[in-house]
């Protein structure tokens, strides 16, 4: 039996707003597929054949590859495309299943398009689903009763991604997952509900084994979990141990990182020697996610001078340690008003930010923000492809939806209008997500 895993396409910022291509003097960071498919594929029984298609690069509707079972994994902005693909597959009489964040949060929305849904983590139920599919007895829903034991998981099948590369798409970096779960309660994040509030750590052997596979292919890795620097569950201690191992192996194994994802409050509370340790491990960029935490919300939503000073201190610490701060500005929070846009631009200039990105607050299904917007009847757009951080899909609290959309584009245009020198910068230095 052959199983074809499909990563559905979704609109990026510049696809929703092509004018960004004219004003942003940088390369587009398209990014690799998430590790979800690779992780589940690794749990497929050995007698099954597996294959993979990235619909963003090779649109699957044009020439549907032959398979006995089709499996899609997707998040909210890819749901529109996923439904189109699933309907096309089912028209051929073949079974199709779905998993990932969106099917887990919105099963009723997905059920009419798929023969079966995987709710939550897929690894514990995947073997059972495969054998049921072989017997022609797929269940409507598969859901594990308890969180998966991360220590029992095989290494992800990253070879599926690497083998799918070609001249048109060969990502510079891939994500390196070190844990699952998060104790925070950010209102625009679904992770605690999807993966649990308790941080579960992958064994160091798993992390290093995955890193080795990417390194052998000449790839850099991105450390995307911002929980790595918190004290809860020994996360920071574990992360420092991993960094020590990386430092000892870095030159011999040519280990390279693209960035470490984190936030301003977390970086404000780490010691200088951790900055140095991160730099020695080869991390030269922090991807600072803003708009989720109280500091950036007060700084840009209310113009709070103390919060602005804290944000500036954090950026300066990064720069002093030779780690470039790549700040992601989020607009559309409840306190954001017409002055938010210029406050962000003023901060970016004062802090001497070289690169940045801008995103529209989005009420993703399953998040506290989604529940609030539904309860207050503020959702104005249910087209899932528009839930990509670049379109306004709700009524903001202190401005019109039209003003928020205009302000988002204004931020991109004004910030990069004075940074056209990036057109001549090295690719590694001028690649941003848009």
Short description:
It contains 18 helices and 16 strands.
Write a structural description:
- With 434 residues, this protein is of the alpha/beta class.
- The chain is 38% helix and 15% strand.
- The protein contains 18 helices and 16 strands.
- The strands form four sheets. A six-stranded parallel β-sheet has the order 3-1-4-5-6-7, sandwiched between helices. The chain has a six-stranded parallel β-sheet with strand order 8-11-12-13-14-15.
- Strand 14 (324-331), helix 16 and strand 15 form a beta-alpha-beta unit.
- Helix 16 runs parallel beside helix 18 (401-417).
- The model has no long low-confidence stretch (mean pLDDT 95).
CATH class of the largest domain: Alpha Beta
What's the Cα radius of gyration?
A: 22 Å
By helix and strand content, what is the structural category? Answer: alpha/beta
Q: What portion of residues belong to β-strands?
A: 15-25%
Q: How many H/I helices?
A: 18
Major sheet strand order: 3-1-4-5-6-7
- Shape field: globular
**From the structure provided, what is the oligomeric state, counting identical versus distinct chains?**
single chain
Q: Termini distance?
A: 39 Å
CATH superfamily of the largest domain: tm_1862 like domain
Count of individual domains: 2
């Amino acid at each position: 039996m052959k199983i074809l895993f499909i990563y559905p396409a979704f609109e990026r910022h510049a696809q929703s707003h092509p004018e960004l291509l004219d004003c942003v003097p940088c390369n587009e960071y398209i990014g690799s597929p998430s590790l979800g498919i690779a992780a589940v594929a690794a749990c497929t029984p050995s007698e099954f054949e597996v294959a993979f298609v990235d619909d963003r690069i090779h649109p699957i509707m044009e020439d549907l590859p032959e398979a006995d079972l089709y499996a899609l994994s997707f998040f909210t902005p890819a749901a529109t495309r996923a439904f189109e693909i699933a309907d096309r597959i089912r028209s051929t009489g073949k079974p199709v299943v779905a998993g990932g964040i969106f099917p887990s949060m919105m099963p009723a929305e997905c059920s009419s398009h798929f023969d079966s849904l995987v709710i939550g983590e897929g690894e514990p139920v995947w073997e059972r689903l495969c054998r049921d599919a072989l017997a022609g007895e797929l269940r409507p829903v598969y859901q594990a009763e308890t969180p998966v034991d991360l220590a029992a998981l095989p290494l992800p099948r990253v070879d599926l991604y690497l083998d799918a590369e070609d001249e048109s798409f060969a990502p510079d970096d891939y994500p390196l997952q070190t844990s699952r779960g998060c104790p925070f309660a950010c209102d625009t994040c679904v992770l605690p509900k999807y993966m649990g509030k308790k941080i579960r750590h992958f064994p160091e052997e798993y992390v290093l084994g995955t890193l080795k596979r990417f390194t052998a292919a000449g790839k850099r890795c991105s450390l995307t979990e911002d929980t790595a620097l918190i004290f809860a569950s020994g996360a920071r201690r574990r992360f420092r141990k991993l960094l020590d191992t990386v430092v000892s192996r870095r030159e011999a194994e040519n280990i390279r990182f693209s960035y470490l994802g984190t936030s301003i409050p977390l970086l404000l509370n780490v010691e200088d020697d951790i900055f140095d340790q991160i730099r020695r491990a080869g991390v030269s960029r922090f991807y600072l996610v803003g708009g989720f935490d109280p500091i950036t919300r007060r700084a840009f939503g209310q113009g709070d001078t103390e919060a602005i000073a804290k944000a500036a201190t954090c950026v300066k610490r990064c720069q002093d340690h030779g780690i470039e701060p790549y700040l992601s500005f989020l607009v559309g929070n409840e306190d954001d008003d017409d002055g938010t846009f210029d406050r962000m631009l003023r901060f970016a200039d004062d802090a001497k930010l070289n690169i940045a990105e801008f995103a529209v607050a989005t009420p993703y299904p399953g998040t506290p923000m989604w529940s609030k917007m539904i309860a207050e009847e503020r959702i104005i757009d249910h087209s899932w492809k528009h839930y990509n951080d670049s379109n306004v899909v709700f009524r903001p609290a202190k401005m019109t939806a039209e003003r928020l959309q205009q302000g988002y584009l204004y931020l991109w245009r004004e910030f990069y209008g004075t940074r056209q020198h990036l057109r001549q910068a090295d690719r590694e230095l001028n690649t941003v997500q848009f």
